[in-house]
Amino acid sequence: MERGKMAELESLETAAEHERILREIESTDTACIGPTLRSVYDGEEHARFMEKLEARIRNHDREIEKMCNFHYQGFVDSITELLKVRGEAQKLKNQVTDTNRKLQNEGKELIIAMEELKQCRLQQRNISATVDKLTLCLPVLEMYSKLREQMKSKRHYPALKTLEHLEHTYLPQVSHYRFCKIMVDNIPKLREEIKEVSMSDLKDFLESIRKHSDKIGETAMKQAQQQRNLDNIVSQHPRISGGKKSKKEVCASSDLEVKNTSPMSEQDSGILDVEDEDEDEEVPGAQDLVDFSPVYRCLHIYSVLGARETFENYYRKQRRKQARLVLQPPSNMHETLDGYRKYFNQIVGFFVVEDHILHTTQGLVNRAYIDELWEMALSKTIAALRTHSSYCSDPSLVLDLKNLIVLFADTLQGYGFPVNQLFDMLLEIRDQYSETLLKKWSGVFRNILDSDNYSPIPVISEEIYKKIVGQFPFQDAELEKQPFPKKFPFSEFVPKVYNQIKEFIYACLKFSEDLHLSSTEVDDMIRKSTNLLLTRTLSNCLQNVIKRKNVGLTELVQIIINTTHLEKSCKFLEEFITNITNVLPETVHTTKLYGTTTFKDARHAAEEEIYTNLNQKIDQFLQLADYDWMTMEPSSKASEYLVDLIGFLRSTFAVFTHLPGKVAQTACMSACKHLSTSLMQLLLEAEVRQLTLGALQQFNLDVEECEQFARSGPVPGFQGDTLQLAFIDLRQLLDLFIQWDWSTYLADYGQPTCKYLRVNPTTALVLLEKMRDTSRKNNVFAQFRKNERDKQKLIDTVAKQLRSLINSHHS
């Protein structure tokens, strides 16, 4: 039962579902019936559904048939009306066909025109689109063309700017075009090309300024010289000092304006041509000679490209190399001043360029870099100058070199470089300059001394007298009163030497100019150099003249007179130095001149030479002595050689009138002592083994002649018999033998009041031995005579007593 109920329930549910599906099919649009039908086929009762569907169709057919039967007459009427309408429709169709044909025929031209219009509108649209695209592309192409033109004309910095605009502004707007991609690919190459070309320009610039550094430096040094001249003028005329410009202002007024990228400044060779200026024309500023635009352009380009550090390192490295080349002096630089000038010009030119770069660029070079280069340059320059200046022996060249170094230092100091070491080195060169001056003046003094006639200067007119007095400070009231012609006591070398000493002082003063030294330092330098001139150079020259073999007594006397007057002139030299340095001699630490000592030494040397010369002359006369030591009878007069000797001495001492009294007295006393000693040696020499009393008497006559000469006062100033005392030894010895006064000699020997106090027993014994030998030889037979025997015994007794005196004295 339950199964039957369940089957019945399922049958009812299926029937309800089929009913729902049928209603859905009837009410739903045909396009959406698919899902409904699918639900039928998804189930298992589609056969029953088909039966239901067929039943429903039959129901609908019956309803349609009923509806048609109900409306059939109306349908027939409608068909009739429709047939009538068909005929009219056919007519209308024909009319429409005709009208259409006519319309088609009439519209062909319009269609053609419309097609043409359509094409025109299409072209217009394409043209408009093309214009729009070209409007975007043309600026790109124009910029690229401009870029190429700038590259071609070597305007690299503008080209780089154009490239930046092209890359960042224009190309992004048209990046989808193929030609833009080509441009984008070329941009790195163009940048590299600009970089290489700008670097090439920089290399050309560096090479150019290396070659033209001397011209740049020459111009800068001319400008510094003009500024110094202007300063001198202003210092001489203080009233116009308000218009004076400083060095920095002058340099600033001549500096180039830094221009970025003016098209007119793009082409350059680094150096501008400058015609030679006349001295009266204004010298152009050093920077006016140089076009720095290649440096600025390359710096800007590398900065834009992000490679500024690379550029800075390259620039500094190249300039360091150039600095080393510039600082390498030529091997023959010391031969001429032009060699030094060119060397300095190159150094100045190098640092003028670097100073300008320092002040016109931001960071390309810095002060530390400049200071490092300058320290290197300063050390190498000073070393080179020390080496090359040491070869220089011409004081004029050394002085010119000093002036050039001062100008070199002032020029660089004007650009802010420290130059104290250069001035310190100039003090070293000053010592060398002094040495070269001393060598030069040594030759000058030698020429003066060699060419002098060593005779008093004759004066025949007032004009000549005033001229000489103007050259040499000499005052003598007695000489002024004398009528012309008259003579100065000194020879020509006195005013010449005095003037040359002044010239030397002037030469020393010239070197001290512009060295920024105080008056005291200049005064000390001049005095020390002058002392060297006096004590070394002039002293040596005088000593050489005095020691010459052929110098005569007259020359020696004149030298003594000359040095006396030069010694007196030393105070005038002191005043001369004081006047030119404005430093009073009383100032603390002031060096004194040693001229007095120099001339005293020279005079003493001349005096000694006079004494030596006189003694040599006396020896020459004594060599003419020809005594007959065995003569029995003397002649009635002195020997001829001695008479001639005394005559020579009289004439010689007559020349000594202008000598200081002490010198003449010393010379005379020295001559007399030497003559006395020489005569004593002549009497006692070993070659004279025997002599007679007659020979002693003849010798006595010669000694008396000498004593007579001494008594005559050949040189004034001796008191009493002072000069005769030179012959006292000879006189007492001769008196002892001629008077044969042995008893007195032996009795009084050793007492202060002894008559023969100056007779030495040894001397007496030697002479006695010579007389005893003579007695023995000449009186062989006379020994049998009593007197002769007694005399021989007496001689033997005296000789024995003399030996006893000698032995007792030695013991």
TrEMBL record:
Stretches assigned to coiled coil: 50-120
InterPro entries: EXOC6/Sec15, EXOC6/Sec15_C, EXOC6/Sec15_C_dom1, EXOC6_Sec15_N, EXOC6PINT-1/Sec15/Tip20_C_dom2
Keyword match Repeat: no
Domain annotation Exocyst complex subunit EXOC6/Sec15 C-terminal: ranges: 421-770
This protein's UniProt keywords: Coiled coil, Exocytosis, Transport
Pfam families associated with the record: EXOC6_Sec15_N, Sec15_C
Top-level taxon: Eukaryota
All residue ranges annotated as the Exocyst complex component EXOC6/Sec15 N-terminal domain in the record: 52-221
Function: Component of the exocyst complex involved in the docking of exocytic vesicles with fusion sites on the plasma membrane.
Family membership: Belongs to the SEC15 family.
The protein's name in its UniProt record: Exocyst complex component
Organism: Apteryx mantelli
